[in-house]
Amino acid sequence: MPIRTNRGRAAVYRKLWGWPMRSPAHLVGVVLVVVAVVLTVGLVVPRLAGSGDGGSGAAAETTGSTSDAAGDTGGAEPGTSSGGLAPGQTGEATSDLPTRLPSPPQRPTSAPPADEALKVAESWGKAWVHHPKGTTTETWLDGLRPYTTEEYLVEMATVDPENIPATKVTGPPVPKESYTSSVTANVPTDGGTIAVTVIDTPQGWRVAFYEQVA
User: Fold this and answer.
1) Domain check: are 121 and 205 in the same one?
2) I need a surface site. Which of 55, 71, 98, 121 has the fewest CB within 10 A?
3) pLDDT by residue for the chain (214 residues), tens digit each?
């Protein structure tokens, strides 16, 4: 029985393979069918594969977007918008520390002119006008030194005493501005009035500035 079965199958195969060879029409028909099957497979299979990838990609994108959205809003407290800001709040950084307003500049305290300050202003004025002909700058500065701050002596060293028109003080100092730590007094001379500013220092009252006013 097995031998007969194999022979029957072989006969069927010979008939199938021999059918296209019986006539040119049969052969052309077989070729057309084969070509159609190949084209169909070539077109359908890539589309099916692309649809599968696109679907999984879309699913992944959707999953990623959902995860991002959950991450963005997951930390938000109830009643707040995205980013942790309450409705009506802006994104500007805020501080819990109280705002400190700049302290207004301290104004000097007015006070009656100190007698010692007026005496220093008068003595300084007399030393300022004392420059006989031939007096050197060093000698002139030595007369000013007991009544002048060290810082202002440096500036006074640039003055040529021969250019000072005054030669004597013609009256007592007149207070112009007076505070607890400084006094400005007008000292009249025969070369015009000078305003002398005296300040309170650890060494006592000393002249820190002067200017010609008249």
Assistant:
1) yes
2) 98
3) 444 455 555 555 556 555 555 666 666 676 777 777 777 777 766 666 655 554 444 444 444 444 444 444 444 444 444 444 554 555 555 555 545 656 556 678 899 999 999 999 999 999 999 999 999 999 999 999 999 999 999 999 999 999 999 999 999 999 999 999 999 999 999 999 999 999 999 999 999 999 999 7
Residue 68 located in a structural domain: no
Round to whole Å and give the CA distance between 182 and 111: 9
**Would you call 194 exposed, middle or buried from its count of C-beta atoms within 10 A (0-12, 13-18, 19+)?**
buried
Q: How many domains, in total, are found in the chain?
A: 2
